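On clarity, I found the account of how folds are encoded harder to follow than it need be. What matters is that the chain and its backbone geometry are given together, residue for residue. The format is easy to grasp once an entry is in front of the reader. For illustration, here is how one protein appears when written out as sequence plus structure tokens.
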Amino acid sequence: MTSEPTRSHAKSVASAFVPRDAGQRAITRPEAKRLLSCLVDDLARHVDNLHEEGVTEVACASEFSSASQPKSITSVKVVQPQPKQNIEHPTSNTEHRMEEIDAGAKLKAIAQTVAACKKCGLHAKRRQAVPGQGNMHPDILFIGEGPGEDEDKQGLAFVGRAGQMLTRLITRMGYTRDEVFIANIVKCRPPNNRKPLPAEMNMCRPYLEQQIAVLKPKVIVLLGASAFEGLIPPKAPGITISKVRGKWLEYQGIPTMPTFHPSYLLRNQSAMWDVWNDMQLVLTRLGRTPPPAPAKGK
């Protein structure tokens, strides 16, 4: 639908700016600004009215003679304003950076407290505490049992043979170690790599709980029986990691997946398929799919 221009309106607009005779006073700049402002408002309302009436094109005068009569008519489309794009405001970036700084500071404070902790006997023979490391806002938080000899030396979680196995698993899932967070249920190495005692896990668990509150992971993966028993104690006796692996649990509203510890896979490679099935459930929960498996021989 089209609409013809109103010539009287065009004439009145032109006459507002062009004196009709030499003796007429020229319009001042403030008056011109005011008239232009009113004109723009009137045009905006007019376009809105045309749109409501179903008008999509209007004819308009491309030039005006001295008598303000149109010389030629052209067609102009009435275009609806496009919705504004959702452009991220600089303030959003600033707030995100502040959140990163805040999370980093809190995790550092927790690590310093862990390094000075002497609540249980594990501190006596440690070289250094192992608070954990990784992304400050990860999709996945992996929780293991406790540091081994290599971890005790380096102060980093999962860097020994079991850590290498975990790294391969993380890579197969389409992540890097820097994109997840890796921690343990206890922060100091138990003597001879024995299983942590319930009292030791209870003493250390508050540090892990504080880390989880800061990290806010989308999913928690419990690696092995100690991680399962330490974070989500079984409600009944006889509930082992073999019985709960592959089944979704929940910790503080966070989906939690128990599975076998990487060190168990070093002794029982056939269990790797069970762990991989569990990790595929994790990826599905996160709305992700694993990357294609590397070609054999590469």
